[in-house]
Design a protein that fits this description.
Elements: E1 9-18, H1 20-30, E2 39-41, E3 53-60, H2 66-78, E4 91-96, E5 99-101, E6 118-119, H3 145-149, H4 153-156, E7 166-171, E8 184-189, H5 202-211, E9 237-242, E10 249-251, H6 252-265, E11 269-272, E12 274-275, H7 282-293, E13 297-301, E14 321-327, E15 357-360, E16 362-366, E17 372-376, H8 378-394, H9 398-403, H10 407-416, E18 418-419, H11 426-429, E19 433-434, H12 436-444, E20 450-453, E21 457-458, E22 483-491, E23 496-499, E24 504-507, E25 514-519, E26 530-539, E27 548-562, E28 573-574, E29 579-589, E30 598-602, H13 639-647, E31 651-655, E32 669-673, H14 682-693, E33 697-701, H15 707-712, E34 714-716, E35 723-725, H16 733-738
Parallel strand pairs: 7-9, 7-11, 8-9, 11-13, 13-14, 14-15, 21-29, 30-31, 30-32, 32-33
Antiparallel strand pairs: 1-3, 1-4, 2-3, 5-10, 6-12, 16-17, 18-19, 20-22, 22-26, 23-27, 24-27, 25-26, 27-28, 27-29, 34-35
Helix pairs in contact: 5-8, 6-7, 10-12
Length: about 750
Amino acid sequence: GEEPTATPGWIVGFDAFDAHEALCSLVASALSPLPRGSWRLVARPPHWPRLPTDFVAIEVTAAADVGSTSRAARRLLTQQAGRIAGSRTRVRGVWPRRWYTAERPSPSPAGGGGPRRRPLGSSASQTQPTSRDVTGRGKQTPYNFITKAYNASRWWSRDATGKGLKVAVFDTGLNPRQNYLRDVVEAVDFTPERNTADVVGHSSFMTGVIASRRGLDDAAGAARRGVDCAGFAPDASLYVLRVFTSKQASATDWFLEAFNHALHRRVHLINLAVGGPDYRDTPFVDKVSQLAAAGITIVSGAGNSGPGWGSLMNPADDAAVIGVAGLDKDGKLAAWSSRGMTLWEEPLGAGRAGVDVITHGEFWGADQHNACQHQWGTSVACPVVVGLLALLLSSLPERQRNTLLNPAALKQVVYAGSSPLPDYGWLEQGAGLLDAPATEAAARAFEPHASAVPSVLDLRPSVGCPYLWPLCDMPLYATMQPLFVNLTLLNSRSATAAFAAPPLWRPRAGGHALHVSFAYDDHRGLSAHRGFLGVRLSVSSSASGWAGEVEGELVITLVDTALAANGSAAAARPAGSPHSVVVPLRATVVPTPPRRKRLLFDTLHSSAYPNGFFPNDDLSQLSVELMDWNGDSPHTNYVPLYASLRASGFYVESLRADLTSFDANLYGALLLLDPEEPFLPSEPAKLRADVTSRGLGLVVAADWHAPDLMASLDYTDEATKQRRVCGAGGANVPALNEL
């Protein structure tokens, strides 16, 4: 088929499943005031399964005034939000119909709409029909490296081969003439190409690592055993869902259809080796939560945008997903493996852990020609976790297996069964290297429970680092900006839970020196087996000259809940007795450093994609990645500067509020580095007084600002067909000059 055109349109979401035809009728009624022929419903291709759905896609036709018609359509549909749209459904929301591609957009009027979701693997030749290594990187790696590294044969010898586990692979399809997979339940194409074939090879690799039988029971038998690219769980039942075309393009509704298909088929695991930086892609993110609430565990690669910090991809950065980082061929954290805190919370709060575990990300696997290929990337690491979990789960008695079939449970088992690698932190490797025997032991002893990530907050620089960097990098002291810690809460007991009581700080030795407060969603609590707890730490002013260690516990008390009849988490009712999570906390407190050693790093005025059109700070990279989506903070792209300042003896604090909020008498200098946002009217006067009257030093740095180039960096909004032009270059130089 021809490559689909990125037609403007919308996704209309409903709060319940119904027949596609019924929902289309409701949408058509809502849009009846628009001129005939100005819009059309996106029909399901005949080859798609006719299953109930909870969304409808619409397109605005080229014959219409595309921009105004598209905006009018959204207005009419949004007016229906919350209203009864039928006997069982309500309109839940209206969102842009996005298009995804493996190709990064170019910085020109013909460019795309920013970073897109794409397969997270190395590209390989599509023409060579024999085992190949087009990069030459795999010469020293045996074909059976990955299954041997995890000693998969110890499970095979016990007749544990993945049987009974349903695994879905969202990717580029499957060769209908493949001969290496034993149990493909179905291969479904959700693109308009009406073809399940994998011409890219990415999906073939994924399915092969999970379930290839090659080298186990092929025609050559024992003679080939150990020398072919075998997979982990050859008897797992595979559902291959093609969401990318032969040119690796996709669309929101194709993913949503595939997610719903996996939901209806009640799969247990999803291999989603796909990623992009748009964590505000609402229908995609909401659907991930819906699957997690249903007990389906998604495993996704952290991304191949390392070694820069703040480079995590979505959905791996979602707490409901197992995010996987990758090791290179030498067993070290790969330079390409994405890392850092999640960016959802920046700049007002601290990010969470997005990476959960690390494993090998460079080895041989199956290809689309029934041979072997060598690939690298976090998408290569992704099916290792999926295959091992399928193998492990198939070795358990059914009753024990069922207690583990939700994302919180499998995350807890993975955390218990992984070992941190030296010299790397939690934001790079998660719990550490996946250890098969330890993971199996944790699974066999598992009891559903609630837990926190990190489970221990040892913030002492001499003990907690480097693993808990940057939380442990500086001691605490009086008058410093509060240290924010964002805990991920996991609950394998129930999909939903509420806070049974406010979180509690239980001080022990030295606890008098520390003030602890909390931020949490008391209304929603935990949903889809996960939630969060923000922790704010500051030292009492009375301890300005005190030095010592603080010790205590954070106590989080939850109660499992049952959803209301209408599925509302807000109306959920308690279902069981309260249970607690206890997080030990230790920190080092020192006397307040002298003013000349204290620096304040402004983060509030930093903005990044997807919160707006902010182009790349590095002009040489514009042709590779148009948008700046890493942000500007001491813990993202300014990590090298932060490390240099700390090594020089400075204390570097983050300012997460406007410039009127801090006491300039406490600091040697304020760092205004690469801000994109304008300044409030009250900020210049305050800063002027700080510098001229209070002796505050001021360091200003900015990336490029070129109006002509900025005018050429535009893209067309996919939904409204409105032209978007960047409002700032690498930095907001006019705002800095005005300041």
